[in-house]
Design goal:
Blueprint (H helix, E strand, L loop, with lengths): L1 H6 L20 E4 L2 H5 E11 L3 H8 L3 E2 L4 E5 L2 E5 L2 E2 L17 E4 L2 H14 L2 E10 L2 E11 L2 H27 L1
Antiparallel strand pairs: 1-8, 2-7, 2-9, 3-6, 4-5, 5-7, 8-9
Length: 177
């Protein structure tokens, strides 16, 4: 035990969702992979989240999901809706837990004003793309997005397939040379 203190290799017992230690760089809590498929993502912002204690404990246990979530403007502030943070069984009985409650997003006033203007005037949508740790704080990556139509999704799929086939052909050509 003494050697662990001297060399600094003491493990604090907290592991990420994928099993990697946080010191090794896996800081991602949850991803919204459908966002790239359903939207044209343009600009990204980093927002803090106002969380309760039980939510933070549940996030550390890997119980967060932002797949169906979205951000909305209400009274000049941004809120995250439909993000699911499933409470732990050990949550206190005197705390009322709501897994789908609206959570306030924390940004600078200038950023909030910019986002409100783009959403209301230009018809953009605020889509959360990732939730991650930054230090000991939970951050949310928000993207200004425009919805894709069906033909846009098909074109994206064609482009992705063409890129994959081109890379495959290049690898086989280089192997044969």
């Amino acid at each position: 035990m003494w050697l662990a203190y001297v060399t600094g290799f003491r493990d604090n017992g907290r592991m990420g969702k994928s099993g990697k230690d946080k010191a090794n760089g896996d800081r991602t809590i949850a991803l919204n992979r459908r966002a790239r498929h359903d939207y044209h993502l343009e600009q990204r912002y980093e927002a803090g989240m106002a969380l309760q204690g039980w939510e933070l404990k549940a996030i550390r246990a890997g119980r967060a999901n932002i797949g169906e979530s979205y951000a909305m403007v209400r009274d000049g502030e941004l809120f995250l809706h439909s993000a699911q943070i499933t409470p732990l069984i050990q949550a206190s009985s005197h705390v009322l837990t709501d897994a789908h409650r609206a959570r306030k997003l924390l940004l600078h006033r200038r950023e909030i004003d910019t986002l409100i203007g783009r959403v209301q005037r230009d018809g953009y949508t605020l889509v959360p793309t990732a939730m991650y740790w930054k230090g000991n704080k939970v951050k949310l990556e928000l993207a200004l997005a425009k919805g894709k139509q069906a033909h846009d999704k098909r074109q994206t799929s064609r482009d992705r397939d063409w890129t994959r086939d081109r890379q495959r052909a290049m690898r086989s050509h280089n192997r044969n040379s």
